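Technical annex, item 7. During the second reporting period the consortium partners agreed on a shared format for inverse folding records so that results from different sites could be compared directly. Each record opens with the tokenized structure and is followed by the designed sequence. A conforming record, contributed by the partner at site C, is shown below for reference.
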């Protein structure tokens, strides 16, 4: 599916649509491994991070991805890439982001890490009955050798008697903890951070193996996601040099849904009703690029994904038409 839009150059959006210079190839700083989700944003190709921020504001898109950090060092930020990979520890123990890596390419990666450290440490204190205790340890020795900066954000739900705010919404705090555990695992938000060449890297677990893979890929070494054979085969139908690329690893979602069904404290859905998703299913790819007052997209949905959606739709319609689903007297 391809789309192409043109804007009046004098309009607010048209003035922000520029043809920048691509500096960082898409998915070139991420490890090639099965993934749930991957995104690559080439800020330079969008006209620079300040232009990208104005573009988001003009489209009224609210993306709460460390906005204060972006504002403080946005002039130097060239690209951002992130991938969420399945973890051998599972959702309940390791969290969704356990194997994930965030790579931010910058003209001054050291300043970027300093800003990230300040951002994490600034959340210290108590809010809504939860006490936040951030920690940042520089040059922590790793058991596999080498060092990395280590960060952690400890969250403690306070009883009303110890909360400076008195009473608090117990249910809201409890659900927040459940969500954060699914996201970060039983240890909460923690990980490694550091600089390699022209990039700042963050992981969301303090696992040396995850850090080692992220560090290697951030330096454009090893097996990279940009060289994935399936993605390479899809390239002729995608944009040649996308400003933004999003990959959805449908083949990994089968295990994810099963883990979520077991990890949830309440039965949100019956595990028996979950679709059977083949692990080898190719990803959905979405590309976006801006030009002079133009916006172009390309979306590739593999036939296997289309067939899966069709089978599930037929299954649902059939279940609705069965006598057992008819509640009429």
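Designed sequence (site C submission):
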């Amino acid at each position: 599916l391809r789309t192409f839009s043109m804007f009046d150059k004098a309009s607010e959006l048209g003035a922000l649509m520029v043809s920048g210079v691509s500096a960082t190839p898409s998915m070139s700083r991420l490890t090639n491994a099965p993934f749930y989700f991957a995104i690559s944003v080439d800020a330079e190709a969008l006209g620079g991070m300040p232009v990208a921020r104005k573009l988001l504001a003009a489209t009224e898109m609210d993306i709460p991805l460390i906005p204060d950090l972006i504002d403080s060092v946005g002039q130097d930020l060239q690209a951002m890439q992130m991938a969420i990979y399945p973890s051998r520890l599972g959702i309940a123990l390791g969290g969704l982001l356990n194997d994930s890596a965030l790579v931010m390419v910058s003209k001054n990666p050291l300043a970027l890490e300093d800003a990230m450290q300040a951002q994490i440490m600034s959340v210290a204190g108590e809010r809504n009955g939860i006490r936040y205790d951030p920690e940042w340890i520089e040059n922590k020795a790793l058991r596999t050798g080498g060092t990395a900066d280590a960060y952690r954000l400890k969250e403690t739900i306070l009883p009303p008697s110890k909360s400076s705010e008195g009473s608090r919404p117990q249910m809201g705090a409890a659900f927040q903890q459940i969500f954060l555990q699914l996201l970060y695992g039983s240890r909460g938000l923690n990980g490694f951070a550091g600089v390699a060449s022209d990039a700042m890297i963050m992981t969301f677990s303090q696992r040396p193996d995850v850090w080692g893979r992220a560090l290697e890929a951030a330096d454009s070494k090893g097996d990279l996601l940009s060289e994935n054979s399936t993605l390479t085969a899809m390239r002729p139908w995608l944009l040649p040099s996308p400003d933004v690329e999003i990959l959805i690893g449908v083949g990994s979602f089968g295990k994810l849904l099963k883990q979520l069904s077991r990890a949830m404290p309440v039965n949100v859905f019956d595990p028996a009703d979950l679709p059977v998703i083949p692990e080898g299913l190719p990803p959905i790819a979405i590309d976006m690029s801006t030009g002079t007052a133009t916006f172009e997209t390309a979306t590739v949905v593999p036939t296997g994904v289309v067939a899966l959606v069709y089978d599930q739709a037929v299954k649902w319609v059939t279940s609705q038409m069965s006598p057992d689903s008819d509640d009429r007297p």
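DSSP finds ten helices and twelve strands in the chain. The longest strand covers residues 130-141. All partners now use this format for quarterly exchanges.
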